[in-house]
Amino acid sequence: MLFNARWKPERIFDVLVGAGFSVETTIQDADSVRVTAKLIRTLSDTVGSNMRLLLVGLNPSFHAADAGYGFAGPGNRFWPAALEAQIVTKERDPVYALQTDRVGMTDLVKKPTSKAAELTDMHFQVGLARISRMCRWLSPKVVCVLGITGWRAALGDSRLSLGAQTVRLGARPVYVLPNPSGLNAHTNHGDLVKRFGDLLDSV
DNA sequence: AACACTGGGGTCTTCCAGTC
DNA sequence: GACTGGAAGACCCCAGTGTT
To answer: How many Cβ atoms are within 10 Å of A170's Cβ, its own excluded?
Structure first.
């Protein structure tokens, strides 16, 4: 791909990764930026410039990557809980959520796995840097990370807890909620609905 | 095809040992 | 005694495999 030199390589990287590409080489010269990228089996971001809420998952599951929308696993509690809490008004439709509810969706790490444990701290740290730049660029009103483990790994601080965070991303306030995956049995549907409701009150 | 069983997993809570 | 860090247990679901 060939980009105008006004595009910063970092911005090109962020956009392509968010769109589901793996960036392999970037060559910059005086008037252009040449990028080699490969489309990978992942989930693309659903983000825009007028978001009241940006939801950040840990990383897509293979199920979600194939379905084309996040939290697609049959046992995932995200969509039922988000719908009940009125975070979104239509189930399993991230584009509708962005256009109508002004809720964007992305992931800390774009590499799909069946379990977050397959990712290293470095994956989360690189992903957090990308999300931080995205927040500076798109200025969502509030950022919500879904999964305390990834958040801890990204910041290298195992003492961090759920709820409002002191750390900001692109100067936007950050909340951390439990991961809605069925694997996280510690959190039930009612708890997620309540936490989403509390989050909505802060938006 | 439908059901049962089993191992593995994310997160929180509790407990315990070590340190100040 | 207070604090910190690590280990273990509990919760409930997923995915794979075996059985009927």
So the answer is: 17
